[in-house]
Amino acid sequence: MAGTMGRPTLRHYRPITPYLFVAPFVVLLLTFLVFPAIFGVWISLHNWDFMLPGKPWVGLQNYIDLFDSASVIFHPFWNGMKNTFLFVLISVPFLVSIPLLLSLLLNKKFPGRTFFRAIIFTPFVLGVAVVGVLFGYLFDPEVGLVNGLLSGLGIGKIAWLTSQPQAWITILITTIWWTIGFNAVIFLAGLQSLPEQLYEAAELDGAGRWGKFRHITIPGLRNVFIFVLTTTILASANLFGQPYLLTHGGPGDSTTTAIMAMTNEGLRGFRMGTAAAMSYLLALVLALVSIANFLLMRERK
Amino acid sequence: MTTTTTPIYVDEESAPRQNGGAPHRRRAYSRTRVGPLTYVAMTLISLIFVLPLVWMLLTTFKTESDARSIPIRIMPSEWTLRAYKLIFADAANPVYLWLVNSFAVSVLHMLLVLVVASTAAYALSRMRFVGRNVLFGVLIATLFVPGFIFFMPNYLTMSTLGWLDSYWALVVPGAANAFGVFFLRQFFLAIPRELEESALIDGANSWTIFTRIVLPLSKPALVTLAVLSFLGAWNDFVWPVFVLFSPDKMTLAPGLATLQGAYTTDYPVVMAGAAMAAIPVLILYVVVQRYVIEGVANSGLKG
Q1: Of the residues A64, A272, B8, B9, which has the fewest C-beta atoms closer than 10 A?
Q2: What is the mean pLDDT of chain B?
Q3: Which of A130, A245, A294 to mutate to test binding with chain B, by most B CBs within 10 Å of its CB?
Q4: Distances from the Cα of A251 to the Cαs of A77, A159, A169, B81, B282, in angstroms?
Q5: Rounded CA separation B134/A34 (Å)
Q6: Confidence (pLDDT) at B61
Q7: What tens digit of pLDDT does each residue of B21-79 get?
Q8: If you average pLDDT over residues B175-179, what whole number do you get?
Q9: Taking CB atoms and an 8 Å limit, are B282 and A142 in contact across chains?
């Protein structure tokens, strides 16, 4: 054998073989990720009205318009950004803390825990469309189950979908029900990768339950926690389906998110130049979140 | 983000035996026996997740007035298939076609992902070539770019290719995804090279090694990726809402939005449509639950 480490560098393929293997994927990568990432910038520098034959160059005007309170896109864009930010703010604490508690509960050894884990994860395998129409029915103010149960408790009719803050609460509850299984499973995997010896050693040193949690579990989960926090912020910033199906962005435009504002502009109004500019601005904000996460993870190592 | 570690599994019994890595026999915090209180708590929590789905299914068998009755009526006063008959007879909202479309799109997408991700992952885990590092760099960069920036340019690409309002808009662009490549590469790296070397001595070429040795050994990872891609395509919502227009080209996810618009408060019909979209993935989930959860659990431990 050629190598000493059991990793011989025996070359068993022709020089062209690796390229043949990666070619199908690379073609897709170039066509649907690399090219559009650049082409999108090009679109954003034009008055790219899909319906018009001419697409005049406008330079940075689309970006300037987003910051110009006199332009027609100013209000929809910043309203969407504001609503998206609000949803991130109200949803992330629940979407991280509830799964963490669930995972601690599931991390005990008891018969049936894989079953419970599977149950909790179930809503996540459904699409937002199913979840959206189902919760639209549950929260229907006239005939929905929620108001039906509340009226049994003597509570009057609540307009879950057409007034604020109820509309946000409905979207929040729907999102919690739909997605917390995902984060719970990730936290649980993190908990189970913590070596049991650490806990045993801590016990010998006289650590109590809280001591073990504070000094082993929390530091051990650090990276998993940052991962969950980041993916959850990004997922909440991508909010679309729940308000699209539950509130149609309303009441008024109070639940119209950034993605909804962008798709309204670009894929309904076909003003793709401004929509592309909107997408890059939102992406920039989200990239800062990702980079902060990356640096946080690195710092530790 | 990319690591060269062996895949980490939640359930040690399903970890590949041949990968040589120590099975993860670690269970933290687990020696306390749980009392009945835990079961009560877990059962109540489980009900929160299950009852809305039961409610959805019950509603599909109700008459419209049962579904609207105040006070709430839990069981149907008469069991009826009216909702299912309606959605299968409605020419403006051909739910049976959406079901077929959803299956076709999801299976085609899944197959495409398996082919392109596994071949690329194999080259990236076993071969050295000029451009390899560039490809890695681009793959990692895509992980930091949110999907919505591709909406406008890819919409124009779909229009140019004539793919708007067709299966291809849902099958192909989404397959350009780094996740599958990284996921499979990690698994391939854990397969001992000795197996491939002995085949090499027997005169096998790269393709034979890949299809006869590497792929069969990677069955758990391939199943996981297949299921996740199928679910991804089946449940995809934002993109199909905008690239599909004709009633006969819809898939179930965007179709449900139009069904909701057409039947507003005839909830048995809307819930029957939702059940059509939910039941196939719920069945799939029951069968391959372990693979889905492991795939997700893995993604969190990569960092």
Answers
A1: A64
A2: 87
A3: A130
A4: 17, 11, 13, 35, 33
A5: 12
A6: 96
A7: 344 444 444 445 667 888 898 999 999 999 999 999 999 999 998 888 878 888 998 89
A8: 94
A9: no
What number is the average pLDDT over the span B221-249?
A: 95
ipTM: 0.90
Domain extent at residue A236: 63-297
Q: What CATH number belongs to B92-302?
A: 1.10.3720.10
pLDDT at A133 over 50: yes
Q: Give the number of domains in chain A.
A: 1
CB proximity under 8 Å: A 122-141 to B: 122-123, 125-130, 132-138, 140
Asked whether the beta carbons of A40 and A279 are under 8 A apart, the reply is yes
pTM: 0.89
Question: How many residues comprise chain A?
Answer: 301
Q: What is the pLDDT of residue A195?
A: 86
Nearest-Cα distance to chain B for A68, in Å, is 22
Residue A156's domain is classified under what CATH number? Answer: 1.10.3720.10
The number of beta carbons lying within 10 Å of the beta carbon of residue A299 is 8
Best CA proximity match to B131, nearest among A231, A163, A19, A199:
A19
Flag whether A15 is in a domain: no
| Pure H helices in chain B | 36-60, 64-67, 82-89, 95-126, 132-143, 151-161, 168-171, 178-189, 193-201, 206-209, 215-217, 219-235, 238-243, 252-263, 267-301
Say yes or no to pLDDT of B17 above 70: no
Tokens 């020696």 correspond to B31
Looking at beta carbons, which residues of chain A come within 8 Å of B134? none
- CB B62, CB B86: distance < 8 Å: no
Average pLDDT over residues A108-121: 88
Amino acid in position B211: T
Nearest residue on chain A to B1, judged by CA atoms?
A: A294
Across the range A136-164, mean pLDDT stands at 93
Structural domain boundaries of chain B?
33-80, 92-302
Range in A73-77, A211-215, A268-272 the model is least confident about:
A211-215
* Closest chain A residue by Cα to residue B243: A267
Residue A8: per-residue pLDDT = 47
Bond preceding residue A18 cis, omega within 30 of 0 = no
Strand, coil or helix: B295? helix
CB < 8 Å from B in window 170-209 of A: 177, 181-182, 185-196, 198-199
Q: Is residue A85 part of a domain?
A: yes
**In chain B, % of residues over pLDDT 90:** 67
B144 pLDDT exceeds 90?
A: no
Q: DSSP character for B172?
A: S
| Nearest to A272, CA basis, from A118, A83, A44 | A44
